[in-house]
Amino acid sequence: MIREKIGSLKVWIPEHTYCYAMLYLVFYVVVFFVLDFTLEPRYILHSALDDLIPFCEYFIVFYFAWYPAFFLSLVWYMLRDKEEFQQLWFIMFTGMTFSLLCYVLFPNGLNLREEVENRNIFCVLVNLVRGVDAAVNVCPSIHVSSSVSVALVTARSKLFQGHRGRQAAIILLMILISISTMFVKQHSVIDVACGAAVSLILYVIAYHTNWRRLLRGRLEVLR
Question: Which regions of the chain does DSSP assign to beta strands (E)?
């Protein structure tokens, strides 16, 4: 059975070359961690609203939910609808690239984290995240921008006709993931607002311009 699935993928991939856009994730992961370990923040972000949001370790569940939700959303749209997959990767990957550029030009970080005792499994997970992901390169929040991307595309998707409950559940999950970044003190309100704004702007471009034709024209000029 495994060989049959591998064989079918070997046939499917060359017939659906748009899926090669997923290779961007390799570039993103490499660049993100290189910047994470090499850039020193020059701008420490803080909002008065951050002080009103209490730390709540239980939100780490939604924070971690981003990882499978992020990847599975891309795969699901890739397999189900070429056009909506392209809309999603345009908004999401352009937003991620813009965020990485912001980190280089305006190295930023946070000073919101307080020491958390390992009093339960949720606190352990919070400390695990903090050990891997330093409080640098936070604005715009990629966690938020990619989650908002999924929510926006899902809200317009034709694939959910007759499945409004499932559609609402996905959008709600994306909202909770975005909110979780503030409750576990991984991001400031500023980061969240900027991350959401990036995706909203790109959403307007994706759905109200012929970006595919513009991109093809640009590639032809570069050739």
Answer: 43-45, 108-110
